[in-house]
């Protein structure tokens, strides 16, 4: 099966399963990966472990941050330049969140197209193991990225990086607060955090957004819409306990949804054929 046909097949199946800079930081990405690993089927789990063995690790959480880490590795400079725009999508039609590929993902340079590309490679057993392992790392990471609201925003603020805030008595920016600041207030490591969220049971999935025919585009639109909710950008640029109490559950719900969807993606892509 061609990569394009494989990608379209995954998209169709995913809609049947799910009707309806550094995202999250190391903690959040590991939480998403661990949530997914806990819900892999036997075939997907075995294939994940087989592919990861080349890196001498066994868990998705061990490679969840690799696509960010390569920007600091001179040996991976070319790959970083080729993939750095695949961590996010900029909605250019603001203030709405309607995804239009020619406008919002020119030349396939966004997280929506990046997910489709690497899911197809991962599911193509004609590809070598090295290419499929690399694809696995990107799929795990990009599934986290696309569920972080500020990796799919429409404001001209570099995903909240230009929106300066006061948080815990220090200067910061909104992107950093969503990446790691709010999650850090729990005081949990990634294993404990994943266990806490997994104990809540499967995350309810949002309803489909018509007329989208691409699940990854839906995930991005959901994130974008979260940034448009009143109060997401705090009045006075100050983030206190009231903001955290309101928005941390939103962030955790996105983590839970990302983990559930990532498991579904991997179970489909790595199913025996």
UniProtKB/TrEMBL annotation:
One of its GO terms (molecular function) is metal ion binding. CDD domains: S1-P1_nuclease (cd11010). Keywords: Disulfide bond, Endonuclease, Glycoprotein, Hydrolase, Metal-binding, Nuclease, Signal. GO terms for biological process: DNA catabolic process. InterPro entries: PLipase_C/P1_nuclease_dom_sf, S1/P1nuclease. Residues 1-23 form the signal peptide. It holds the Pfam family S1-P1_nuclease. PANTHER family: ENDONUCLEASE 4. This is S1/P1 Nuclease. It comes from Rhodanobacter denitrificans. The lineage of its organism: Bacteria, Pseudomonadati, Pseudomonadota, Gammaproteobacteria, Lysobacterales.
């Amino acid at each position: 099966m061609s990569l394009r046909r494989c990608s379209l097949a995954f998209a169709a199946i995913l809609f049947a399963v799910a009707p309806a800079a550094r995202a999250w930081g190391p903690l959040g990405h590991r939480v998403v990966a661990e949530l997914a690993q806990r819900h892999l089927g036997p075939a997907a789990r075995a294939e994940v472990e087989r592919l990861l063995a080349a890196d001498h690790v066994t868990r998705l959480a061990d490679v969840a941050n690799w696509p960010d880490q390569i920007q600091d590795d001179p040996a991976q400079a070319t790959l970083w330049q080729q993939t750095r725009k695949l961590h996010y999508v900029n909605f250019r039609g603001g203030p709405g969140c309607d995804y239009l590929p020619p406008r919002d993902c020119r030349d396939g340079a966004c997280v929506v197209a990046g997910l489709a590309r690497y899911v197809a490679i991962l599911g193509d057993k004609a590809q070598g193991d090295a290419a499929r392992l690399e694809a696995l790392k990107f799929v795990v990471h990009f599934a986290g990225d696309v569920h972080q609201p500020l990796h799919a925003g429409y404001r001209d603020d570099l995903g909240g990086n230009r929106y300066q805030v006061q948080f815990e008595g220090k200067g910061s920016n909104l992107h950093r607060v969503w990446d790691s600041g709010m999650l850090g207030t729990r005081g949990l490591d990634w294993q404990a955090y994943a266990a806490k969220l997994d104990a809540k049971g499967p995350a309810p999935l949002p309803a489909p957004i018509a007329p989208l025919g691409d699940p990854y585009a839906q995930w991005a639109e959901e994130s974008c819409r979260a940034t448009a909710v009143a109060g997401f950008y705090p009045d006075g640029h100050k983030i206190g306990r009231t903001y955290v109490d309101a928005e941390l559950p939103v962030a955790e719900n996105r983590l839970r949804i990302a983990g559930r969807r990532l498991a579904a993606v991997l179970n489909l892509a790595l199913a025996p054929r």
